[in-house]
Amino acid sequence: MIAPLTDPLLDRAASLIRDSRAGLAFTGAGISVESGIPHFRGAGGLWTQFDPYKVASIGEFRRDPAQYWTYSRNHRRTGAAPNPAHLALVDLQRAGHLRAVITQNTDGLHQKAGSTDVIELHGSSHAVECLDCERTYPRDRIDQLNRQQSPPLCPGCGGRFLKPTVVLFGESLPAQPLQHAQALAEAADLVLIVGSSLQVYPAAGIPRLAREHGAQLCIVNAEPTPFDRMAAVVIHGRAGEVLPAIASRTIPSAG
Ligand code: NAD
Ligand code: ZN
C-alpha cells in the first residue's frame, strides 16, 4: 500500500533539486515498471518467480546458452515506451538540474525519452556481443535468429555464445562507465534516486560515494530501501506519479 503523496515532501525534493549545482539521477528497474518492464526485487519482482542464478548468471550462460535465449524468447518485452518518470528526468536535465543519468537499467528507455549523458552501469539489452569473436550485433537481429533456433549462432564465426552486453551475475561491471559514474558521484551535490532497491553492488556504491562526499540524497521508490535513513527526502510512491509532480514544482513550466 503506497501512502498518498504529500505536498511538503514534494516541495522539499523540488527545492533540493533547484538549489543543486551538480545534480545526478540514479535509476533502477522501478522507473521502468510503469513502462511494463518488471523489476527484480521486492513485491511483484521477477525474482519471486524465477531463480536469478539460473536465468541470469554467466556460469549458467556459458554452460547452456540455449536456456538463456529460451527465457529471452518467452519473457523479453519489446516495444516498451518511456513513461512520465523518464520524461520528467528529461525536463529536469534540460532545465539544467541534472548533469547525467546513471542507470542500472539495460532497457534504453532514458535515451529513448531524450536524456543525454546516460551512463549504463549494467550494459545494454539492445547490443549483443559474441564471446568468441567479439563482434557486436543489434539485439533485433539476434532475436530474429533466436526465433528460429536457440541458442542463436554468431553470424560472423558460428559461435554459440552470443550474449547481450547486460552484466550477468558473476560478471564485473564495465570499467569505463563505473569510473565515470564514480567521478560524477564525487563531484555531485545531489542524487535523485528513482526505483532502485539499492541492494545491488557495486552500483549502489555510487549514491553512497556521493553521500560520503557531501551530496544530499532524494529517494523515490515504491518500498523502503537501506539508504532511507541517510536521505534528505524519501518519497514512497510510483515513479510515474511522483517525478512529474517534483518536476512541475522544480520547473514551473514543466508537465
Ligand atoms: P530492483 O528490482 O532491485 O528494485 C527495484 C525497486 O523499484 C524495488 O525496490 C521496488 O520497490 C521499486 N519499484 C517498483 N515499482 C516501482 C514504481 N512504479 N515506482 C518506483 N519504484 C518502484 O532493481 P535495481 O535496484 O535496479 O537492481 C536490480 C538489477 O536489475 C539492476 O542490476 C538492473 O540492471 C536490473 N534490471 C533492469 C531492468 C530494466 O532495464 N528495466 C529490469 C529489471 C532488472
Ligand atoms: Zn562470433
- Structural class by SSE content: alpha/beta
**Tally of DSSP helical segments:** 10
Distance from N terminus to C terminus (CA atoms, Å) equals 26 Å
Write the CATH homologous superfamily of the largest domain. TPP-binding domain
Number of strands: 9
Overview of the structural elements:
With 255 residues, this protein is of the alpha/beta class. The chain has two domains: 1-36 and 81-122 and 173-255, TPP-binding domain (Rossmann fold, 3-Layer(aba) Sandwich); 38-76 and 123-166, 2-Layer Sandwich (SIR2/SIRT2 'Small Domain'), CATH 3.30.1600.10. The protein is built from ten helices and nine strands. Strand 4 (127-130) and strand 5 (136-138) form a beta hairpin. Helix 1 packs across helix 10 (239-250). The mean pLDDT is 93. The chain binds nicotinamide-adenine-dinucleotide and zinc ion (ZN). Nicotinamide-adenine-dinucleotide binds next to loops.
List keywords for this structure.
alpha/beta; three-stranded antiparallel sheet; SIR2/SIRT2 'Small Domain'; binds zinc ion; 255 residues; six-stranded parallel sheet; binds nicotinamide-adenine-dinucleotide; Rossmann fold; elongated
Give the secondary structure arrangement, pairings included.
Layout: H1 7-19, E1 23-27, H2 52-55, H3 58-63, H4 65-75, H5 84-94, E2 100-103, H6 109-113, E3 118-120, E4 127-130, E5 136-138, H7 139-148, E6 162-164, H8 175-187, E7 190-194, H9 205-212, E8 216-221, E9 233-236, H10 239-250
Parallel strand pairs: 1-2, 1-7, 2-3, 7-8, 8-9
Antiparallel strand pairs: 4-5, 4-6
Bound molecules: nicotinamide-adenine-dinucleotide and zinc ion.
